[in-house]
Structures are given as structure tokens and as C-alpha cells.
Design brief:
Elements: H1 2-24, H2 30-42, H3 44-62, H4 72-79, H5 85-88, H6 95-107, E1 110-113, E2 120-123, E3 129-132, E4 137-142, E5 147-153, E6 155-159, E7 168-172, E8 175-179, E9 183-189, E10 192-199, E11 201-206, E12 214-217, E13 220-225, E14 228-233, H7 238-242, E15 249-256, H8 257-265, E16 271-274, E17 283-289, H9 293-303, E18 308-310, E19 314-317
Parallel strand pairs: 5-7, 16-19
Antiparallel strand pairs: 1-4, 2-3, 3-6, 4-5, 6-9, 7-8, 8-11, 9-10, 10-13, 11-12, 13-14, 15-17, 18-19
Helix pairs in contact: 1-3, 2-3
Length: 319
């Protein structure tokens, strides 16, 4: 009877989680919000189940009606505002039926993108989190055996939930990165890529060379150039500079003006243009909001005693 009791308890938790997802999709009172927070904090299983139900509801909302992969009444129950218990459980009798109806969808690759200048947080259904930098796209494909993410372009930071039975593998061009429970960032570049480990350890390798994977620990990074992968140890504080984008900032610590302009141009439709080649190699220091190229222009004007002028979509430095 223990197995049946555990199954019933799990179904009850999943059912409550799904109901909370639907209720929270509409307007709720302060008392209801407090009740939800108390329910979520009461048991670690509640938080995990709520996260899974949220991911399933989001996926259901994104389905095109012509290609919807789950029964219509189940999808409607997930996204309707304040459904009754009977409506929520329609078509299967328990929340397990909802999960079963969505399993095919959950295993299909799903693409998610961030806009220019946007930093987008993406909760993943295993409890991991992906944070997308500006103008980035990831393709997610989870299975029972492995958690796969393709970084199609751009940059993302991953905080990976521990699961030794299902490795977490990110692919960015020729670069592959495998983690179990750790945190790391991957950036796709025109001529390669970079993996920066902020917590734990990852294995990294290039296409077709998994047997030659290198171990990269926190405080180190792997850099791909010219079809080679090399290991680098970073100076203290370099992580904070390289990953300042996670809080919407750009930190310059001796980068050239050209590098600074390129960094700002990743985030903004108004582009920084260096019109005087003699200025391009000047070293720049400071902390700036990534969406504020005008602040860099002003700082350069003062520190380098040079002209800065604006037109419709450019900030022109020098001459």
C-alpha cells in the first residue's frame, strides 16, 4: 500500500500545483497570494511541482492550434482563468493525464530568443535556469536520458540542477559543454566560442572529439579559435566583468575603445562609431549600463578630450 499511497500523494501535489498555475494566471487577492506562498514553502516537492506545471502551461500556451499535440480540453484547462477542479482534471482524472498529454511536446525541441538589449530569464522544467544575453537564441530538447540545449547564437548563462542520471549538454557551434550540477556561461562567436565556468566543473570538447574533452573548473574558461580548444585561467574578478551583463551592466577594465564600442553595439540600435582610428586603441575604464551608449560617449569625450556627435542612429567619436 505504501507505493499506492506515495503515488496518490504525488498526484495530489501535482494537481494542486496545476491549479495554482491557473489561478495565478489571473488576478488574485493578497490573501490568495499569501496562501500560495505558504503552500509552496510547506514542502520542497511543492516548489518543484509548481515549476514543472508552470513550464507545461507555458508550452501549452505557445502551441499553434493547428499543431497542438495535446487534447483540447486539457490545454484549455491549463490556461483557463480560475477553472474548477473538474475542469482542471478533465480528460484524464488526474494531473498525470495532463503530463501524459504533454509528454510529446516536452520532448520536442523548443526555441526561445531574447531581443536586442534584452536579458531574458528562462526557468527550465528540470529546475535549471538559463539566462539569455542580448539577441540570443537557444533550442531546448530534453529527454529521459539527457538535457540538451543548442545555443544557436548569442550568449547564455546556465545554473544547472543536479541530476547525475541526465547530463546537461550545451552545444555552441563546434563546442560542446557537459555539466551535471554547476553554473557556466557559453558565448557563440563568429570564429569560435567561449565557455566560462562560475561554479563547479564542466567537460568541454569539439565536434567528434569527445574522447579529448578537457576539464574546466570554476575560475577557468575554454576558448575555441581556429578549430582548437584551449584552457585558460582567468584573473581574479574577470568573471564579474565578463558576466556583468547578467545585471544589465558593462564593466570596462582596460579594454580598448574599439572593444568597448563593439560591446555596447551588441545591446543597442544606436551604434557607437569611432571616426578617428587613433582613438580605437585607447584603454577605457568604468562601469556603465549596457543600454546607455551615450554615457560611454560622454565619458570618452571628457577623458580623451575628443568630440562626440550624434545623428539618428549613431554616436560618432572623434574628428
Amino acid at each position: 500500500m505504501t507505493g499506492a499511497t506515495n503515488t496518490s500523494a504525488a498526484i495530489a501535489v501535482d494537481t494542486a500545483a496545476a491549479e495554482w498555475v491557473v489561478r495565478l494566471s489571473g488576478e488574485i487577492s493578497a490573501d490568495e497570494r499569501q496562501a500560495f506562498e505558504q503552500w509552496r514553502a510547506a514542502d520542497a516537492r511543492h516548489a518543484g511541482s509548481f515549476l514543472r506545471a508552470s513550464a507545461l502551461a507555458l508550452a501549452a500556451q505557445q502551441l499553434d492550434s493547428a499543431s497542438q499535440a495535446i487534447p483540447g480540453e486539457v490545454a484549455s484547462a491549463l490556461v483557463a482563468t480560475r477553472p474548477t477542479r473538474r475542469q482542471l482534471l478533465a480528460g484524464g482524472g488526474t494531473i498525470a493525464a495532463v503530463a501524459a498529454g504533454l509528454v510529446a511536446l516536452a520532448l520536442r525541441p523548443e526555441s526561445v530568443s531574447s531581443d536586442l538589449g534584452e536579458t531574458r530569464s528562462l526557468p527550465l522544467r528540470d529546475g535549471s535556469t538559463a539566462l539569455l544575453n542580448t539577441a540570443s537564441t537557444v533550442r531546448i530538447a530534453y529527454s529521459k536520458e539527457v538535457r540538451r540545449i543548442d545555443l544557436v547564437h548569442g550568449e547564455a548563462w546556465f545554473d544547472v540542477a543536479h541530476d547525475t542520471a541526465r547530463p546537461f549538454i550545451v552545444r555552441a557551434g563546434r563546442l560542446h559543454v557537459r555539466a551535471v550540477g554547476t553554473a557556466f556561461a557559453v558565448r557563440q562567436l563568429d570564429n569560435g566560442g567561449v565557455v566560462t565556468v562560475t561554479e563547479g566543473v564542466v567537460l568541454a570538447w569539439l565536434d567528434g572529439h569527445e574522447q579529448e574533452a578537457i576539464r574546466i573548473a570554476a575560475g577557468s574558461r575554454g576558448v575555441v579559435t581556429d578549430r582548437a580548444l584551449r584552457h585558460e585561467t582567468r584573473p581574479v574578478g574577470e568573471d564579474d566583468r565578463q558576466l556583468a551583463w547578467r545585471t544589465g551592466m558593462i564593466v570596462l577594465d582596460g579594454q580598448t575603445l574599439r572593444e568597448a564600442a563593439d560591446d555596447f553595439n551588441r545591446y543597442n540600435p544606436v551604434k557607437l562609431v569611432i571616426d578617428d582610428p587613433a582613438l580605437a586603441g585607447q584603454r577605457i575604464y568604468g562601469t556603465f549600463r549596457a543600454r546607455d551608449p551615450e554615457a560611454l560617449g560622454h565619458a570618452v569625450s571628457v577623458s580623451l578630450n575628443t568630440s562626440v556627435r550624434h545623428d539618428a542612429d549613431r554616436i560618432i567619436i572623434g574628428k
